[in-house]
Amino acid sequence: MAFIAIDLDGTLLNHQNEISEENIKAIKYAQEKGIEVVISTGRAHFDVQTICEKAGISTFVIGTNGSTIHSKDGKKVSSITIAKERVEEIVKWLDDRNYYYEVFTDKAIYTIKKGREQFQNEINHLKSLDLDEDMKELVDVAERQFDQFGYVLVENYHDILNQEEEFFNILTCSFDKKKLEEAWNQFKEINELMVVSSADHNIEMTNKNASKGLALEKLAFLMNGSLEQAMAIGDSNNDVSMLQKVRYSVAMGNANDDIKAICTMTTLSNDKNGVAHAIYKYMDNLAVSK
């Protein structure tokens, strides 16, 4: 059994936060040929499920950067949590320093109402300025983040910690590079955490045993499959672990040069159906190798 693992934001989703018809057709074509397609993302499963239902596709989902695995019918296959004590330590540090942050659980994406308003005001201010293209794109990415399904706004971090839910992922954002670097340095030294980034304005934290690569490896094992002929497609730092696990690693045309450098090929951008292009090329190569 062969696998295709596909990142969502900046990869399968275009700039309208939609899966194009071309990409939908390519996914269904691969599935018809017996390939197991897996969406692998930093988003929560309940959010991905909404996107997939709208697109009319059904896949396995690796969610919250490898913390969860769900089957096609939405059943949770595996989950790896962050201990509540560690969550409290992280969010208190972020809160004390006025960072915007989100906490992902099995039921919701929690964020502080005041922090959300402040971050939106910062986005609005930046949009009013004469920014270069890279910064414009970064601001757009930050704003599209709020299109996710499942947000719950709360008054303070104690409201988050009082939830009797499993904690999977903590995301923090800042357009201040020094501030973001300070957070990165603070949390990367904690042995229990895996710290990655999906865009230049954020860092994301999961349990150290949770990553897209480890989750893909686990899924292949559970299904008695192999990653020997697998392909993974991504565009950012949090995709590296799965790109390194497969034989065919594909960088999106819109990925940065560091990601392109570690991949076996580069496809078209997310606005030019890069996923579909990569899938058809992969299927052709697979047919030849057989």
Automatic annotation (TrEMBL):
One of its GO terms (cellular component) is cytosol. Transmembrane segments: none annotated. Keywords: Hydrolase. GO terms for molecular function: magnesium ion binding; phosphatase activity. The keyword Iron does not apply. CDD domains: HAD_Pase (cd07516). It comes from the Bacteria. Signal peptide: none annotated. NCBIfam families: Cof-subfamily, HAD-SF-IIB. This is Cof-type HAD-IIB family hydrolase. It comes from Cytobacillus dafuensis.
